[in-house]
Amino acid sequence: MKKTNDVILQTVTKIITFMIILFSIDLFFSGHYTPGGGFIGGLMTAAALLLILLAYDIKTLQVILHVDFKLMTATGLLIAILTGTGALLFNEPFLKHAFDYINLPILGETSLHTAVLFDIGVYLVVIGVTMTIIQTIGESE
Amino acid sequence: MEILMSIVIGILFMCATYLILSKSLLRIIFGTLIISHAVHLLVLTMSGLKRGAAPILTDGVTAYTDPLPQALVLTAIVIAFGVTAFFLVLGFRAYQEIGTDNMDEMRGTEGND
Amino acid sequence: MINLPLLPILIPFITAAVLMFFPKRIKAQRTISIISSLGAVIASFVLIFTIRQNGIQTVNLGGWDAPFGITLVSDMLSALLVAATSIITLFVIWFSFYYMDEGHERHYYYVAVQFLLVGVNGAFTTGDIFNMFVFFEVMLISSYVLIVLGGKKEQLRESFKYVLINVISSALFVIAVAYLYSIVGTLNMAHVSERIAEINQPGILTVIAIFFLLVFGLKGGIFPLYFWLPGSYKAPPIPILALFGALLTKVGIYAIIRTYTLFFYHDTGYTHMILGVLSMLTIVVGVIGALAYRDVKEIIIYNIIIAVGVILYGVSVMTPEAIEGSIFYLLHDMIIKAALFMLAGIMIAIVGSSHLKDMGGLIKEYPWVGWTFFIAALSLAGIPPFSGFVGKLLIVQGGFRAEEYIGPGLILLSSLLVLYSVMKIFTNGFWGTPKEYHGLKASMAFKLWIPTAAVVVIAIAYGVGAEAVRPFITQAVEPLVNPAIYIEAVLKE
């Protein structure tokens, strides 16, 4: 394939990737009470990674982020299920979540939920699945 | 508003049916994509399109929207996303393996007699 | 243990996630899969006996009370189906140790099977109509993965059709649920039933009933909607075909049974009449296919379609006796279809082809396979004392009591032709002069035969011990005939 000149795309990518990832983390945490959460947070992070993949190539992405996305999916899935299963130990219905208000240094009074753990699982699964799909198509070209 | 949405959904279904009945793999996949959009809009419309606040979160809200269809639509979108991605990969592999994206030419005879 | 109904879903789910970490280590994959399937079997039997003693079990996920949250409901019907599913999966996994190529096993085969188990068990257990859609999708996506596994040309072509059909039927499912929600304003199945009873099923709900029939019929393979089934099921390797044939169509049938006894039982003159006519036509086309083909796989695949017709006919009659027959036959059919496909797998492993013209005289070298097949064939056709007999007898009796004669007559006639179609395999494949076989896995035949024989033994035990099984089936029928039992158990009023 002819090498194309995409300086603009590559330069923009370098800056904007971090913004997208930061925004995705913001979205992830805002899912606590308001719209947001693991799914769209993960999708947005995947979009940032995809941008790197488009601007450079798959090798650059692997140098930056050396993880096996299939393993990432598996890890996320396991975290999500085990969080739900945790309720079984206390003889509560599956997926019942627990929360408490804890005084943390700096942050002050914060509400901590086990649902966040579940969401981290979802976040990882979404990134893993999306990137696996894109890699599957990309590799065979 | 509901009537307008119904018409839009109808048009989407029409386009999707047209695409699915064509012979190219890619067009068929686009057809399923559009059909899932139409279905998601239908789910949203079915509960009535009302303007209002989110229920439960704040006190004293009189006009609120039904949150359930939104949850359903989100689930359906996630599933449609996964299935479409899989379908694209499958279509791509089929194109590579068989060497054509025309459903007519795909009709093979091996194994049949 | 309030989460008991959840265990047969949760065990394969966790297993699938764990198995994803080391897809290349086949030994570990096999061991963990078989242990977890055994766990699912044990959990489902504990569940059955708990329900026998304490009645219907429910779990409100996340502690949100019904009808607001998602509820999982295990009545006897779903528990029995879950148990049958887990048993079949256990033996099919065992069978695939010796049948599948290593390449398949490395490509997440066991993971996909476990996810399939999650989807099927979930669809049987859920008490929420939208959640049923979600479990259907879990089941379907893993079946997509299974059907393309290997990626041969024929498989790719057939799986494209299979995925397309199922994407469209899923879209129809969501549409049906959306319509239902717009009228009754709830998704909890018990609550839906209650609301429909309050408004006494006006015409629009009958339309939705037909919509649901269309959706589940497409999955189950009833008369005009079965067209995709023979082609798609023929493509994948035998263990996958055994899982599909034994489980996937049955999920569609279960969904029809559930919705038609719980939701749409007010206007039976219309909806159940359509169901009855379609099921009779299903039997006819199934029989024609089973007689016409001379390929072992295809003959048994068309027998799936016949069984779908027989079971749904029993449901359409809607008398307690006929429904009891249907459920009896449903469980029988799951077990015996798995056994027959596994037997066909052994024949293919020996001969290297699934066509009858390449077979002949197998019984000389492999008498154990031959006689196991003979017993399975008799059982499929419903010869007493084997398991198909009791179910068919009850369905036919129920039909005659309801003063219908065409349906029961058709079922009796179809039994004869089913017997002919499988005996065709027996006479052409096992009798006659031996031919040269080109199977690559002929040395594995005995190892393959052990799990198969175990499934056949279960089928025989199910038939001979029908007297012992009957109280369980009777308990399964109660909530179907009297939806109030189901509603009360879920909503706890």
Strand-pairing-aware structural class of chain B: mainly alpha
Strand content of chain A: 5-15%
Whole-number tally of structural domains of chain B: 1
Helix content of chain A: 55-70%
End-to-end separation of chain B = 56 Å
Percent range of helical residues of chain B: 55-70%
Largest sheet of chain A: 2 strands, antiparallel
- CA-based gyration radius of chain A: 18 Å
How would you describe what is shown here?
Chain B: It comes from Jeotgalibacillus soli. Chain B: Keywords: Cell membrane, Membrane, Transmembrane, Transmembrane helix. Chain B: It is a multi-pass membrane protein. Chain B: It is found in: Cell membrane. Chain B: InterPro entries: CPA3_antiporter_subunitC, NUOK/Mnh_C1-like. Chain C: Belongs to the CPA3 antiporters (TC 2.A.63) subunit D family. The complex is a heterotrimer of chains A (141), B (113) and C (493). In chain A, strand 1 and strand 2 form a beta hairpin. In chain A, helix 1 runs antiparallel to helix 2 and helix 2 runs parallel beside helix 5. Chain A contains five helices and two strands, in the order ααααββα. By secondary structure, chain A is mainly alpha-helical. A two-stranded antiparallel ribbon of chain A has the order 1-2. Chain A starts with 6 loop residues before the first helix and ends with a helix. Chain A has one domain. Chain B has 113 residues and is an all-alpha fold. Chain B has a single domain, classed as Helix Hairpins (Orthogonal Bundle), CATH 1.10.287. Helices cover 68% and strands 0% of the residues of chain B. Chain B is built from four helices and no strands. Chain B is elongated. Chain B starts with a helix and ends in a 7-residue tail after the last helix. Chain C has 493 residues and is mostly helical. Chain C has one domain. In chain C, 78% of the residues lie in helices and 2% in strands. Chain C is built from 21 helices and two strands. A two-stranded antiparallel ribbon of chain C has the order 1-2. In chain C, helix 13 packs antiparallel against helix 14 and helix 16 runs antiparallel to helix 18. The mean pLDDT of chain C is 91. The chains are: A mainly alpha (141), B mainly alpha (113), C mainly alpha (493).
